[in-house]
Amino acid sequence: MGFLEISNNGRYFVKDGVPFFWLGDTIWPAPCAFSEEDLEFYFNRRKQQGFTVAHIMIPWVSFDGNLFAVKEGDTMDNIPMWLNNNPATPNEEYFKLVDLVIRIAAKHDILIVLLPCGGGGGTFIVHHKVITAENARAYARWVANRYKDEPNIIWANGFDMKPWSYEEIAQEFAAGVKEGGANQLMSYHACGATSSSYFHNEDWLDMNFIQTWADYKSIPNMVTADYHKKPHKPVVHVEGAYDSGIEYSIPITSHLVRWQAYVSVLSGGFHTYGHNDLWRKTPYWRACVDSKGANEMTVLKNFFTSLEWWKLQPDLTLFGPQMWKGQAAAISEDGDFAVVYFTNRMELSICIGRVGGGGPVHAVWIDPTSGNRINESIVSGEIYDFTSPACCDDAILLVTKVKM
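-> structure tokens emitted (404 positions)
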């Protein structure tokens, strides 16, 4: 397994010399809440479903707020994450659990986004004040030295807070990672914001992470804005509304889960999925690994990887002057094909002349819940009115230039 790299144009990832399609998942408390058997089950199934990335936190607060790891079913065997509660002196025994996660993920060809400072709205920065500007560099240096040779690691700076909060700790952490000899890619995991809003021009920031959580309607605008920033860096929407999440004002259905993913990709970025029962590790976590939303991410992955997806460029002008209704679209850089996501059952005018140059184009509908192809046709002209299939709540339209 080679190290993840950035494409020459700064738009996407490359691994082992070929474009790498990022499809992420979140299993935040993996080191402390999941057994080896659990992890084998999880990573094996995610590999089968086509997921390529998993996000975990190194520190995770126990369910009663104490600063130690809790192994399910064995609360008497609590393992401190740091000796004397000082991140500058990590606990070797706890990091053996982190090693296990990384090792099992690598066996299944899944990359790990490592968040060493934790999350929870700055749990270890604000609420407990354990990670500080005085110890962050030493902690990062130690962790980086431990994992610098692991090719399936991506570093996530940050603490699940606004990127302008505690900048001095973030800078110390980034410096420590570099001093520890780690050259893997790094980003910053913010809360309700994007890493670009404060760190875009930092040399240590290789890609931009966006977190929207309940503000998922802002995904298209935030991804598009980051896509157009210079210098170009890959964009990943890493945390939106969790599938079946209980803390939102509306039910988070598989339809909404799909929308978050398709608009992320077609706006120029990548996407990380997440399920409420997995990151919380509820009694239903094994069943949720095969949730409708998760399996429909497989459909998304299979669809895009059947194309030269790395050539896609977001382009809402394919819709002409129509009012935006949540739809998304992208066209290949050479104009050979375009992908349009219809958010609901709707009729939209598409500027197909952008693809066919006025000549005929092949149009096919894809059901995003199954991947089945529906209603193929050959059409021509500059603009064509498409009505999405009545059998689909939302739909993908693939328009391809007909080669004469």
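The chain has two domains: 5-305, 315-401.
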